[in-house]
Structure formats: structure tokens, C-alpha cells
Amino acid sequence: MFARLARLVTRRPGPVLLATLLLVGATAVLGVTAFGKLQTGGFDDPQSGSTRADEAVQARFGGQPSLILLVTARAGTVDAPDVTAAGRELTRALAAEPGVHRAVSYWDGGGPPLRSESGRHALVLAYTSDDDVAEGLVARYEKARDAPGPVTVAPGGAAAIGENINDQVTADLAVAESVAIPITMLLLIAAFGGMVAALLPLAVGVVGIFGGLAILSVLGSLTDVSIFAVNLTTALGLGLGIDYALLMVSRFREELAGGRDRADAVASTLRTAGRTIVFSGATVVAALAVMLVFPPYFLKSMAYAGIAVTVFAVLSATVALPAILVLLGPRVNALRVGGLIGLIRRRRAAAAGSPREASESPVWRAIAATVMRRPLITGVPAVAVLLVLGIPFLHVSFGTPDDRVLRDTASSRQVGDVIRTDFAADTAAAATVVLEGRAAGTAGGGPVGGPALEGYARDLSSLPNVARVNSAAGTYAAGRQVAPPTPADSRFSAGTSTYLEVVPSVDPASDTGQDLVRGVRERPVPAGAAALVGGPSAVLVDGKATISDHLPLAVGLIALTTFVLLFLFTGSVVMPLKALVLNALSLSAVFGAAVWIFQDGHLSGALGFLPGPLDTSMPVLLFCIAFGLSMDYEVFLLSRIKEEYDHGVPNTEAVATGLARTGRIVTTAAALLAVTFVAFATSSVTFMQMFGIGTALAIVLDATLIRGVLVPAFMRLAGNVNWWAPRPLRALHTRIGLVEAPRPEAAHNTPAENVGIVGHELVRQSEK
């Protein structure tokens, strides 16, 4: 495959580049249309009871309030005559808006529950026909919040949260790119030592980014896709472009320095680095594809984006980039930088005895040699560090995104803070209980009503942490009716269904809020009816259950696909197992650090976020992204070690040489990729900060403790056992695996010190 590809790009580089440019142009035109098709939600399971309950409330009863207006008296209380007049006029005007089918306020139908305990604030609740209507109203009221008059009006609720997050993600993306791209460009110039070579990773990254956005645009027309997939598209596209271009250009330079002409150098680069990139991309795709097993479309969207970006980046790096290298040839080193970087490179080249030595890093060879001389002394402390970092994850708690993921400058966050601190209960946070089916004893077999509904509402109101229950039978609190039914309560019944609002007196995201939902679900329902429970707390409970139910399958799939791919790559069953164990160690440290920072609140002042539970979807996303990128570097390193080993170099020397020749590439790529992701620390959305910082930390740990210490330590301990596989699997690998060069068996018949500590005794016995 790679030989045919090499012939294509070396003989027809011009047409290959022309086709690439046409593809980039088409994907760019299509990709810019993606932004208007993406959604802000997607964190819940569409098949869960909570989602079906919320959909039933929306379809049959007009839904829950999507927009909350916080009305604050500029002076006095909300009962002052001028404030009352302004509140009623605001309610009337809101109810008259197109797409608003109901508006309720403290002054008009809502009563005391919509008045704050201090008396300075009151709420207006708007029920809209769709999200676009609500978001349009949010934008209008945000512009008018400082208008003169006796009151100020601030928009909040689900519509405002979605609008604020959407706006903030767009702004944060621009900020992150303005931070990451200049720094990345400077680091690329430093890494390559020249302007021409430094621009090549950006070219590969652009192809990946535009390709990913184009796929998101297409999918956004067919199904729900999350807006947050754009962040992953840009970060991963730039990151993989850097990774793959670094590997390709470095190998191309090495081949040129070895005396090959440009065509032969590109062909050799494709057979080696190109093969590595294809396998690396396959491992990344396998890790990202696992997110497709989870029902929330937030995770599915990340899988769509990540897979598309990776495929386009691999194609760009193995097709378009080699064509560019054929045309450039030695000019890939043009526009070299001077100063310290150039001096270091010239001295290193002058000191090296051969082109192959010039491509090595003496620092990384020394690290490898040091680690392998004392594998236990160096490896055990590294394992201990990772385990200690992972300890905080033992007390992790989970939540779903609400207004608290935003900074306190956002309107929806300000409204949410006031409701949580100055209102006895939040009607918008109510658990919705939909009763479906015809109840026995009702007139004509209609919806649940009469004594059955009264008894059920009374029973629910007696549960701990329930402020009140609103229903067609009236309002109940503490096991008794506190208000009879009114004409407005007819909204709770439709056809054969009725629903109740169980308003909590606690934070719906808290443990007690989740316990309340479980308690509601455990209460017996009226005979002849079935209950669906929705609302924020129910969404959280169901979201956690969904993740935990699908997690074993996801972990099993990612382990299996990784094992198979690395076996095909190396012919060993030990290497895949080693990679899985080390990745688990690294990820446990990342998750522990995420809990320590974002849940426990360390660094919250510096990063400007409100500590709280981790979003249920974010650990899954972080797991898949970090796992895929770590396997990226695993393949980079193993490819050079295996190449040396297959050419007869003893195991210990092969490990040292492999690390010496890839250590600089991996660390440079990791530093550049970490910059790309850590730029999301500038985000004003907490879970995006966690995603960026967590991914950057995973990359840094993988490039240092894992690749620099634990991999050489393990491979020294295992020795030639590293490359072991049962006889049937060896035969299978011979048929279907990719082998770069035939392995000279005699070359590995080495003394026991080259076999490793694990196999030392076996070798000693065999030599007797």
C-alpha cells in the first residue's frame, strides 16, 4: 500500500496537491455553515425516563418555563405600586410575544412562590413554543436590562443558559486560538529551525479542521450535534497536524541527510513514518469511536468531530504532505532561523558521527540508559506519583451543566445565584411527574383525577425536601392542601394524561435533590396509571445511570481495539497489555487532578470558576481523547524501537535508540499539543476549562513519566519477552500484520543482560 502511494505522490505531486486544494476549498465552504446548525444541549439520554417525561410535558402541556425574568426593584420592594405596575406590564407584554403561549409572574397568577424572601426580587416565567423564540427574547432582554424605570430585568432559565453558553463558546474559541496559534507557531519554528518546515504542520492541521467542520455541517443537517464539537475540531486538528507533520518532516530530513534523493526519501518516509501515522490514526479513531456507544449526543458529537478530523489529518499527512516534500526537497530547510537555535543545531550536527546520530537526542539516550540501568529504582517512584495524583478521584461526584458553569458576569448565572440564595424554592427546578393512562374510577375513564390525584399529590408533598406540589388538584405542601385548584391549573391535564410539579426545597444537583427524585419514583402511583419523572434532578440521576451502564462496554471495546491494533503493529501480545496498563495509570492521575482542581476548588481563584461536581459526560470525553492521544505517542515510540529490533539490534539498545530518535519528536509534539489544549483554560465555561487542562495534563504526563520513564523501565525488565506472542498469533501476524523488515532471528540470540530481568533466569537455564 505504502509503495503504491509513494509512487503516486512522487510521480504526480502537482495533481495530488491540486486535488488537495480543491478538497480544502470545498470543505471550507461547507464547514462555515456548521455553526448555525449546532446545538448547546446533548448531555441527557434521549431514551431515559426523564427525557421522555420532559418531552411529554413539552408536547402535551406546553412545557416547563424556558425563560425566567428576574425583576429587581431599584428601590423598596416588589410590592411597591410602581414596581407592581411595571411587573404586570412586563408580564402582559411577554405573554403577547409571538411564540409565547403563557407568562406567569408574582403579580399575575404566580403568587408568593415567585417572590424572594428579601422582597427585592420577583420572577416572571415564560412558556415558549420553541428554543429559537426563547433565545430571541433572551438577547432582547439582555440588551434592555439597564433601561430606565422602577425595575431592572435580567434573563435567566434554560434558554438564557443555552444562549450564554453558545455565545461564550464562540468567544472562547476565538480567544483560545489567538493564544494558541502564535505560541504554537513560535514553538514550531524553534522545533524545525526554519519557517518553511514550521508551516507544514499548520497546513496539515487546516485540512483536518476544515474536514471536521464540513462533516459536522452535514451531520448537523441530519441529526443533533453539539456546538462544543467545534472546540474539539480546532484543537485536535491543529494538534494532530503538528504530531504527524513533525514525524514525517523529521524522518524526511533524516533520509535526505542519509544521502537519498527526494523521491527515495519520500518513499522511505512513507514506508516508515507514514505507516506509523496510519496506525496512530487508527488507534485515535478507535478510542474516539467508543463515545458512539453512549446515548447523549454531546458525546456522539465529539466522536463525529474527532473521527472526521483524524481521518482528514491522516490523509493530509500521508498524501498531501509527501507531495509537498517531493516538490520542496532540500528546500524544506529553507528560511532557517539563526541565533541560539541554529547554533545548537549546527553544533549537534557537527558533533555527530553520522546522519543517523545527528537525528538522535543525546539527552533522551542518556535518560533511557539511566532508567534501564535501574528500572525498579526509577520506575516505582513514577508509578507512585501517578497513583497519588489519582487519589482524589475516589471521592468524585457528578452533575449536569447548569448556569454555574459560567462566570458570574453572565446574566443566567446572576439570575441563578439570586434564585438559589433568596428564593425558598425554584419552580424551574421542579421534578415533573407525568401520569399516563386512564385511571379506574374516573369519569369516562379519563386522566387521573379526583381522590386518586389528590392522594398522590398529598403523598408526594410529604416527602423530605419538597417545598410544594402543584397539580390539577391544587397545591400541596407537607402532606396537606394549601391552595385549591384554580382555572389556571387546568394546564396540568391533557387527554388521558396529567402531570404534577414537585418543587424541591434543595439544590436539584445536590445529593438530597437526587434522593428526592428516587423517592418520587419509589412512591406508588394511582391504579391504572404509569409515571414518568423528569426535571433537572431526574436528568442527572438518569445521566449517571446511562454512563455507568455503558461504561463497561466502552472500556471493553477500547481495550480490545487497542490490543488488536498494537498486535498488528508489533506482533506482540505483551506490548498492547503494557500500553493498556500504563494508560490506565496515566488516566487515573488525570482524573484525580481534575477532581482536585475543579471539584475541590484548588486553583478556582486563578482560573475563575465556581467549584462543583464534574459533568457526567466530561470524564468519558477526557478518557477517550487522552487515551487516543497517548496511543498516538505509544505508536510513535514503538515504531522506532521495533524498527531497530527487527534489524537485529538487541532489545536494550533498540529501546535506547528508539527513545533517542523519537523522544525529541514526542516531547516537542506534546508541548505543542498541550499548548493547544491548555489554551482552553482561558474559557469562561467550566467544563471546557476542565477538558483543556485535563487533556493537556494527560499529554504532559504521557510524554514524560510514561514514555520517558515507565516504558523503558518496563521494556528493560521484560527484555525479549516484550516481543512474545503465542505461536498461532505469530503465524497470524505473519499473514496479516504489517512488518517493516524481516527480523533476523540470529541477531537476537544475545547474552542474558540483553534479555531483561524478567527473562534472565530463563536465558541462563537455556545456556547451560
What percent strand?
A: 5-15%
**Count the helices. How many?**
25
Q: What's the end-to-end separation, in Å?
A: 46 Å
CATH architecture of the largest domain, by name, is: Up-down Bundle
Weakly predicted, low-confidence segments? 338-344, 350-358, 439-445, 741-768
Return Rg in Å.
31 Å
What name is given to the CATH topology of the largest domain?
Multidrug efflux transporter AcrB transmembrane fold
Shape: elongated
The secondary-structure class comes to alpha+beta
Mean pLDDT: 84
Number of E strands: 13
**Helix content range:** 55-70%
CATH class of the largest domain: Mainly Alpha
Count of discrete structural domains: 4
The biggest sheet, with number of strands, parallel, antiparallel or mixed sense and barrel status, is:
7 strands, antiparallel
> Would you identify the CATH H-level superfamily of the largest domain?
Multidrug efflux transporter AcrB transmembrane domain
Q: Which terms would index this structure?
A:
elongated, 9% strand, 4 domains, 768 residues, alpha+beta, 25 helices, 13 strands, Multidrug efflux transporter AcrB transmembrane fold, seven-stranded antiparallel β-sheet, disordered C terminus, four-stranded antiparallel β-sheet, single chain, Alpha-Beta Plaits
